[in-house]
């Protein structure tokens, strides 16, 4: 039986500070949203509107040649960055494909393909970490289906198949240092279902997983031994005392609910029934779980069509890998002009949430400060289709995002706030110290700068505004796959990858494992005490 959550089921404890800050989310006037970085300036090239002082460069587009001889696939989706050797930045990128518009001709897959039919894949782009010029690009994983989002991890990029076709529906580990196609490394213990995204608690090794269905669950994978991160138990979130709770009914500003976890007995079933198993034990229902990000202040989870008008919720989960934790709603759309189906989400290293929209009222890259200010950071004007894969560089000085159905990846630079250094006592989370106006930006394709800045002269591209392919991605609507192998060094963690507890040559992206501003303050307070 499905149970709707009412206020009487909530804990009496006070909500988290960040949640309290966000209560006003749906009540702020629209004009206030320009206060953080400034109004969006129309792009004369008709691709992406940005605040004055910020600029974009087109990294690559569908159909262009990569350095390994393969072509750039269409429908770029989830991404994460890693610090590479020699000051480079490595971008790992999913492509949400089924059977067309892939990196090679149909029927001619490389021998490493997971499935000779599937065109889902992961590509890798290497940048100069100082200039963000593209240095090289190559295919890493192929033969998967509907690689949607994924997540940064200490073991590499986790690529998620949002497709439960028999033989698919897995999370794959991808090596950021792989300069060629790798043997696929699916992780069946993480479950076989329509995976969306993943987030890792680096202290406990727990992996949190979302599922993109109207009746989805939120999962947690607990390793039995940190040295073998993909051997352990898959579990699903349950509200304490409530069977099959409908989280879409949870309200912003209400006290958190207590949660516990129920085991999934068969994580790799032939049928697509992982959520059915979990709900038979009372697991809660999330309405299209999508983006998820781990921070020191909690785990933020997006339900794209949850909430009072079915246009999105953002949850905050507190969990230490133990038996119980708490869950609360920190944002819910009451008006698509303010929040319209959030999808991918990340945390800037200075403490702002950035999230992509996949809605119907124009699609923005939006953000939320630790002071509760909702702001627009970018608008897709080439097609009004969804943005995807938002992530920051490890240094926090560049933002990467995809215009998915326009088949292009962009890198955005400009006056982002400074990343707090360890031991600093203050951090600006509102961008107020950024020079958000009056400067010229750059645009362009493949490193060719356009003009940008104020007075309508924002960045652009020297190429035609076309995506280089059909804006619908050749008919492969919202599909994709991603998987990869792992490194060749030892010790092997059960994923074929290298366990590197100290980071080694591949370091966490601050965008994925960065500190939320609130968490930074909390940690400093604990240190001071």
List keywords for this structure.
529 residues; Neuraminidase; nine-stranded antiparallel β-sheet; six-stranded antiparallel β-sheet; 4 helices; 28 strands; 5% helix; disordered C terminus
Structure explained in plain terms:
This protein is mainly beta and 529 residues long. It has a single domain, classed as TolB, C-terminal domain (Neuraminidase), CATH 2.120.10.30. 5% of the residues lie in helices and 33% in strands. It is built from four helices and 28 strands. The strands form six sheets. The chain has a nine-stranded antiparallel sheet. A six-stranded antiparallel sheet has the order 2-3-25-24-23-22. Strands 4-28-27-26 form a four-stranded antiparallel sheet. Strand 26 and strand 27 form a beta hairpin. The N terminus and C terminus are likely disordered.
Number of strands: 28
In the CATH hierarchy, the third-tier topology is known as Neuraminidase
- The strands making up the biggest β-sheet line up spatially as 12-13-14-15-17-21-20-19-18
List the domain count as a whole number.
Answer: 1
Give the termini separation. Answer: 47 Å
> In percent, how much strand structure appears in the residues?
25-35%
The shape, in one word, is globular
In the CATH hierarchy, what is the class? Mainly Beta
